């Protein structure tokens, strides 16, 4: 999956790309866990900071999210945890800004109705 596949599908509901037949549920991915199981996650958003790309992923049914660094290598993508606390905190701040802005926009839309 490339960052182009994650962003701008044109459905107007969210920021990712996976074709014209977006059903707003295809922003999910299956990840292989260390214990051999698989879990399905929703891609909440992606940010680029200091030349690196990061994803906010939420396990289906969860209100919490994980932040993973995304590295692309040709057609494949590697996701890894952010080990450095300062780097993690900087990325978390960026996602909080994005999600806060999104919440503010949702509140404004509700007030207009």
Protein model, in words:
This protein has helices spanning 3-6, 85-112, and strands at residues 28-32, 38-49, 52-59, 66-73, 76-81. It has 113 residues and is α+β, with helices and mostly antiparallel strands. Strands 1-2-3-4-5 form a 5-stranded antiparallel sheet, covered by helices on one side. It has one domain (3-112). The longest helix is centred in the C-terminal third of the chain and has 28 residues, at 85-112.
Helix percentage range: 25-40%
Describe the sheet with the most strands: 5 strands, antiparallel
Q: What string, H for helix and E for strand, traces the elements in order?
A: HEEEEEH
Helical segment count: 2
Task: Name a few traits of the molecule.
single chain; disordered N terminus; five-stranded antiparallel beta sheet; 2 helices; alpha+beta; 113 residues; globular
């Amino acid at each position: 999956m490339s960052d182009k596949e994650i962003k701008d599908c044109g459905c107007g509901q969210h920021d990712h790309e996976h074709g014209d037949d977006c059903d707003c549920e295809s922003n999910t991915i299956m990840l292989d866990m260390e214990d051999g199981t698989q879990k399905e996650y929703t891609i909440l958003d992606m940010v680029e900071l200091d030349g690196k790309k990061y994803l906010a992923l939420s396990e289906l049914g969860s209100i919490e999210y994980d932040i993973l660094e995304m590295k692309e290598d040709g057609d494949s993508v590697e996701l890894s945890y952010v080990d450095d606390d300062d780097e993690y905190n900087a990325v978390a701040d960026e996602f909080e800004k994005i999600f806060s802005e999104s919440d503010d926009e949702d509140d404004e839309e509700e007030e207009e109705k």
